[in-house]
Amino acid sequence: MSLTAHWINGEWSRLSAILQTSHLQGSHTAANIQATMEAMLTDWDMKGKVLVVLRDNAKNVTKAMTDAKISSLGCLAHTLQLSVKHTLESQRAIDDTGDM
């Protein structure tokens, strides 16, 4: 799991930096994700200072952010990817090509 910061500087340029990447030990439960996220935010003295977390749309990640009382948004690119995948899998002609 990674913690990336995004901000705008005085010249209105968008900047970003990967602050930390942590191995998520054990099962990827909401409680485990929450604990890992809170530990990373504590390491960077950012607890309570985060405007929003951009996350994937998995229920365990959504629940982890809700339980941690961290504002979060689902990633539009992830939503689009899931929609395209679902649509492609629903097309019989495409589905049948995988059996060749």
Globally, the shape reads globular
Structural class label? alpha+beta
Mean pLDDT: 89
Please trace the helix and strand order, writing H or E for each element: EEHEHEHH
Rg calculated over all Cα atoms: 18 Å
For the sheet with most strands, the description reads: 2 strands, antiparallel
How many helical stretches? 4
Low-confidence stretches: none
What portion of residues belong to β-strands?
15-25%
Strand arrangement in the largest pleated sheet? 1-2
Q: Terminal Cα separation, in Å?
A: 37 Å
- Portion of residues in helices? 40-55%
Number of strands: 4
Counting structural domains, the number is 1
Give a written overview of the molecule.
This protein has helices at 30-43, 59-67, 76-90, 92-97; strands spanning 2-8, 14-21, 53-55, 72-74. It is an alpha+beta fold. It has one domain. The strands form two sheets. Strands 1-2 form a two-stranded antiparallel sheet. Helix 1 (30-43) packs across helix 2 (59-67). The longest helix is centred in the C-terminal third of the chain and has 15 residues, at 76-90. It is globular and about 50 Å long.
